[in-house]
Amino acid sequence: RIYGRAAIEGEDPGLFAYPFYTVFVVWPFVHVDYSWASAAWMVLLEFCLVGALFLLLDIFRWRPSPMMLGGLIVFTLIFNFSARGLILGQPGHLVYFLEVFTLWAFYRRYDTVAAIALALSTIKPQMGFLIVPFLLLWALRIKRWRFIGAFAITFGVMMVASFLLQPNWFGEWFYQLGLYPTYTEIGSPTWVVGNWLWLGIDPISGKWRVIGGYGDIITFALNALFVVVMLWGWYTVLLRNHTERFWWVVMWTLLTTHMIAPRTATPHYVVFFIAIIFYFSYMVRHYRRGAQLVVLSIVLLTVLPWLHFLLTVEGEFEHPSVYVPLPFIMAALLWWTRRLWWDRAVIEEQVT
Fold first, then answer.
1. What pLDDT is recorded for position 46?
2. Domain contains 224
3. Closest by alpha carbon to 166, among 329, 320, 66, 16?
4. How many structural domains are present in the chain?
């Protein structure tokens, strides 16, 4: 009853569409005044964004100048999808940090803490339902048993604790997940593209909805394309032992996650910082005016998404087209520069 009463038709019912063990993460904020809790949560998310940036700089072995570092930190916080996530209190920023921390700790061979972070990242399953199994399969492939064991123990403890505190939570959670699409109208980026010709605003509810068309067929075809490429990447890394492709496959797996999930949110796009920092580091190392290119890229990536959002926003809701540009541009970049990732990829010893 977040409204002080039962939600009426047309209002967000505020269903708890998270696994029960998420309560262990938010528990410190529960008994604090809402304004203080909101402020503390926002600060935590800011630390997550900046912390993930520093981890990525270490992963890609980039030591930017103090001025460049300051610009990267500011960009990280005011980037449209970062800033809106901070304003909305998006737990996705925390999950993004946990995923980046997992990758960093894994390559540093801190297997136990990497596995704990990966298990905690499942508080928002729609952000990790592909990367979690890939990393576990990779750990199995290279015999990192401590990583697998620590993940199993951590995840098992969270699940057991959840059932002890709320025995029926799993069924109730799935029930609420089933209701989720009934009040969240916009789907994945592929859904937006597939249904573009048939999207419109319901004059009664004021929400975006699809009116007829062949969107499901187009969406399925697009989803299949991304999944096939991802599975091919998994095959080359896990079975053909092309370890130099690990980081590219990680990034494509994360891209596919947010392309095909039945429901996503644009603040989840902070995961694309992984690729953005990779490309920035490459520019600085390989182009004479690389630093200037990075600055120009930061300006464009800051201004254009905000302009897109502000010029298209409809009442309370962002326009469906906001979901499309970044992931599809990232898909094109990842595909056309795949050999750059493979040839210049963080060396094999980091992931084996």
1. 98
2. yes
3. 16
4. 1
